[in-house]
């Protein structure tokens, strides 16, 4: 991709897009973001909604998304503690991208070969 000039600063759009892709790269981040785009989730609900994800991996992915400002974590002072995750207003800006992906899938998804859903470790009780 060509370098583009914006004001006095040169921007390498290839590098900028690599940074953007890095925010959502990871085995589970897009799935987590898709779910959180629908509603607020508690940790256990997310874990149940994503077959095959481990507690450790869900925690790591949520921490990265939170550090990047795409997910907010709210801890309620209750016993036992309640923690909720939701996407931030910055992440809501990805809504048109998710809608475009949905439209693409609705048009082309049936032509994509079905793969096994076996990702990661099997969840206990599965």
Automatic annotation (TrEMBL):
<dbReference type="InterPro" id="IPR036390">
    <property type="entry name" value="WH_DNA-bd_sf"/>
</dbReference>
<keyword id="KW-0804">Transcription</keyword>
<dbReference type="GO" id="GO:0003677">
    <property type="term" value="F:DNA binding"/>
</dbReference>
<dbReference type="InterPro" id="IPR036388">
    <property type="entry name" value="WH-like_DNA-bd_sf"/>
</dbReference>
<feature type="domain" description="HTH hxlR-type">
    <location>
        <begin position="15"/>
        <end position="113"/>
    </location>
</feature>
<protein>
    <submittedName>
        <fullName>Transcriptional regulator</fullName>
    </submittedName>
</protein>
<dbReference type="Pfam" id="PF01638">
    <property type="entry name" value="HxlR"/>
</dbReference>
<dbReference type="InterPro" id="IPR011991">
    <property type="entry name" value="ArsR-like_HTH"/>
</dbReference>
<keyword id="KW-0805">Transcription regulation</keyword>
<dbReference type="InterPro" id="IPR002577">
    <property type="entry name" value="HTH_HxlR"/>
</dbReference>
<keyword id="KW-0238">DNA-binding</keyword>
<dbReference type="GO" id="GO:0006355">
    <property type="term" value="P:regulation of DNA-templated transcription"/>
</dbReference>
